[in-house]
Write a structure and sequence with these properties.
- The protein is about 40% helix and about 10% strand.
- It has about 500 residues and is an alpha/beta fold.
- It folds into two domains: about 1-165 and about 210-255 and about 485-500, Rossmann fold; about 270-480, 3-Layer(aba) Sandwich (Rossmann fold).
- The radius of gyration is 23 Å and the shape is globular.
Length: about 500
């Protein structure tokens, strides 16, 4: 297996869980991956992937070079690029990397894979579309290749496509618009539709200068793959549209959940308060637009918001978990919560868990919360995945208003833990969240509808019996169908099938 990135997001969780589930079904796994930091840190690969055979690419020197004013992408082991475009970030967007820097990535990873002694590998399973594909193609062109799409690469390709179309309407291409970025000739929006105008307003063209190059490069990598794993029907359709691969090349296999970690557990009020005090008071990691963990902290008296003054028991807690990326719609959740809060019959705190330090798109969520009224909103910061089961045990409802979420791993983890969920009718979650009469396991609301989300929050909080019914249905359904132990057999079947068929000749389509 190969993962270009250091452990940070959901794909790293998938890699770890899948790699541990495969040996019992006959496949041993060696891993090549990125790493950042020192032992004990969550971004440190040997720590995160403990127990797995891993060869790592250490990005720590590259990040240190960036902090001294150098280019992290030009380091001997260059930092990985990103699928998101953020100004002044060390991990620049793929689309901002020149073909020369793309080759630097590929050559560096070729050295990593050679040092891992993958010559005996029967098959390569690469996560995301990245320069790892170039490295494997150059060294082992005859080995079966599985590409696991996690959705973020598809979102980048979609945005590049929309930007390219927009640049064409302005009489240029992405590289040309980068040259004209500060010119007076850029339109103010009167020639554009509202969606294109908004896209233009959020765009710095230089961040996407080489987007068209990366579209071509990643399409070639996809077509070299013997199988592409898509994590939802939505992403299968996106892969067909954006990568131009034939339908028979794609296998839809959802992400799974570690049912040994995520199960129903009850915490007393006292146990909850101990956990919440540690996260919010004693060891605060929430952060404002300074980007510094701990810049948001709460006094001990703030924990009273988690106690129902009428019953003396725990107040129902709403939980969001995720990065502060635009498609996660954290800002919309905060606005919906502000509208719903006066309609609750008692305290209903919202715990915002996550936000990788210093990384956010759009207006900072804490700024939105301050403007909308931050009473009842708590930012716990980025926490280790091993702490998430406790976080879910402190919550009655998981809320994820993402639009076109590629899959929604944390929804599965919440549902397996017996926590009811609210999702939108977009992206991956509708493939496993349902609100149909009979055996509903959650609530589904229209995407980008702040009033509908507020109404769903009120209904879910006030309808305790309905909430419990959905939570019980979710736990039963998800644990039965989506455990990694079950899904490992489906991956093994894909691998076995590829070993039993002849390889394509060079240049032949998938």
């Amino acid at each position: 297996m190969g993962l270009l990135f250091y452990p940070r997001g959901g794909s790293a969780q998938v890699v770890r869980s899948l790699a541990r589930a495969l040996p019992p079904v006959g496949w041993d796994v060696s891993l090549a991956c990125g790493s950042l930091g020192s032992p004990g840190e969550g971004s440190h690969a040997a720590t995160f992937f403990a127990g797995l055979a891993a060869t790592v690419a250490d990005f720590t020197p590259a990040l240190a070079a960036f902090r001294h004013g150098e280019d992290a992408m030009a380091a001997p082991m260059p930092l990985h690029p990103s699928y998101e475009a953020r100004t002044d970030a060390a991990d620049r967007c793929f689309a901002a990397l020149s073909p020369e820097l793309a080759e630097r990535q590929a050559h560096a990873w070729e050295d990593v894979l050679v040092s891992a002694r993958f010559d005996t590998a029967a098959l390569f399973h690469l996560h995301h579309l990245t320069p790892l594909h170039d490295a494997v193609a150059r060294r082992w062109p005859d080995r079966p290749l599985v590409t696991h799409l996690h959705g973020t690469e598809l979102k980048m390709l979609d945005r590049i496509g929309r930007l390219s179309a927009l640049a064409a309407t302005l009489g240029s291409d992405l590289a040309g618009m980068a040259e004209r970025e500060d010119a007076d000739c850029l339109p103010t929006g009167d020639r554009l539709g509202s969606e294109d105008g908004e896209l233009l307003a959020r765009t710095r063209w230089a961040l996407w200068r080489f987007g068209d190059h990366w579209v071509g490069r990643l399409r070639v990598a996809a077509c070299r793959s013997d199988r592409l794993i898509c994590i939802s029907p939505h992403d299968r359709d996106e892969a067909l549209r954006l990568l131009r691969v034939p339908p028979e090349a794609i296998e839809v296999i959802p992400n799974g959940v570690d049912t040994d970690c995520f199960y129903r557990r009850e915490l007393s009020l006292e146990e909850r308060l101990v956990v919440l005090r540690r996260w919010l008071v004693d060891d605060p990691r929430g952060w404002d637009d300074s980007g510094q963990p701990g810049s948001i902290r709460y006094p001990p008296a703030a924990l009273e918001a988690f106690v129902d003054p009428y019953s003396g028991g725990p107040a129902p807690v709403l939980l969001f978990v995720g990065r502060f990326l635009s498609f996660k719609r954290v800002q919309l959740l905060l606005r919906a919560y502000a509208r719903a809060r006066p309609r609750f019959s008692g305290p209903v705190p919202l715990l915002v868990w996550g936000g990788f330090p210093g990384e956010w798109e759009g207006e900072h969520p804490y700024t939105v919360a301050e403007r909308e009224g931050s009473e009842g909103v708590f930012f716990s910061g980025w926490r280790g995945h091993d702490e998430l089961p406790l976080g879910l045990a402190c919550a009655e409802l998981f809320v994820g208003p993402s639009v076109d979420e590629p899959f929604g791993q944390v929804f599965l983890e919440a549902m397996s833990s017996g926590v009811a969920v609210i999702a939108t009718r977009s992206g991956g979650p509708p493939s496993f969240v349902n609100a149909v009469p009979g055996r509903p396991n959650g609530w589904l609301v229209p995407p980008d509808d702040v009033d509908a989300l507020a109404d769903a929050l009120v209904e879910a909080v006030k309808n305790e019996a309905g909430r419990r019914e959905r939570a019980e249905n979710a736990s039963e359904q998800i644990r039965g169908r989506y455990s990694w132990h079950t899904l490992a057999h489906r991956f093994a079947a894909v691998y076995d099938g590829l070993l039993c068929r002849p390889r394509r000749s060079e240049g032949e389509e998938a």
